[in-house]
Amino acid sequence: MGSIPKDPVILLSYINTQLRDHYGTLDEFCRSAGVQKAEIVSTLSGIGYKYEPAQNQFR
Q1: What is the mean pLDDT of residues 39-57?
Q2: Is residue 15 part of a domain?
Q3: What InterPro entries has UniProt attached to this entry (predicted)?
Q4: Structural domain tally of the chain?
Q5: Does 1 have pLDDT greater than 60?
Q6: Among 56, 54, 46, which Cα is nearest to 26's?
Q7: Residues 57/16, Cβ–Cβ less than 8 Å
Q8: Domain, as residue range, for 16
Q9: I want to staple 58 with a disulfide (CB 3.0 to 4.6 A). Which of 18, 23, 49, 53 is the partner?
């Protein structure tokens, strides 16, 4: 996963902050960061979080 945090809890905080402050969608973030959406979704689902498009955050 590119240069994003590998620890799932830190990744959660990082991704949600990026989505809130800089990106309108998870797809937009993934394109910009050069990371695979499926890998992020899988990592965060492993700690019980799911992407909610309407809120543009993992909950």
Answers
A1: 98
A2: yes
A3: DUF4250
A4: 1
A5: no
A6: 56
A7: yes
A8: 8-58
A9: 49
2 domain residue, yes or no: no
Global model pTM greater than 0.70: yes
Residue 40 located in a structural domain: yes
Per DSSP, helices labelled H in the chain are 8-21, 26-33, 37-45
Report how far residue 59's alpha carbon sits from residue 53's, in angstroms, rounded to the nearest whole number. 10
Confidence band of 2 (pLDDT split at 50, 70, 90): low
Q: Give the closest residue to 30 by CA, choosing from 56, 7, 59.
A: 56
Whether the CB-CB separation of 2 and 35 falls below 8 Å is answered with yes
* d(C-alpha 40, C-alpha 12), whole Å: 9
CA angle, corner 38, sides to 14 and 35, nearest 5?
55
Instruction: Encode pLDDT of 8-28 as tens digits.
Output: 999 999 999 999 999 999 999
